[in-house]
Amino acid sequence: MNKSKGLTFILSFVPGLGHFYLGLMNRGLQFMIMFFASTFLADSFFLFGVAIPIIWFFTLFDALQQHRTIKERNEIVDEPLFNWGELQEKKYIIGWVLIGLGGLFLLDQLSPIIDDFIRMSIVRNTVISAIFIYVGYRLITGKPILPTNSKKTLPPVLQEKEEVKE
């Protein structure tokens, strides 16, 4: 095999392409799908954005490692990154992981609505608390709850009763 290590390195800047160059089609395709799917989903869900640099670096170093292995063995063994047969045996675990990721994705999408609701309840509770404190303070100090004018103006009926008392 006369594959260039430098060209493998340069092609590996596009995840999976270095593997294709080495003849590792299954492995390269899996890396490419993982990287571009994460890039596509990163805009919608933060976890995929974190995965992008991890996948990119792992792909880069894996291509160089595969180049060394192929050079030492002088044979190309295209082992996939994920063995689909083994994944089939763990379908319940994978199913629960996918359900969990779907739930996190849904919460992430609903978070603006939840945040608005929480903010409104905080504002409401703060206003109610302030009213209770104000009314309690006014009661303790013996002041009227609602401020009144300094000039007493009684309704005409009560004015007549006040005049009769005097």
TrEMBL record:
The keyword Membrane applies. The chain crosses the membrane at residues 6-24, 31-58, 92-110, 122-140. Keywords: Membrane, Transmembrane, Transmembrane helix. This is TM2 domain-containing protein. It comes from Bacillus suaedaesalsae.
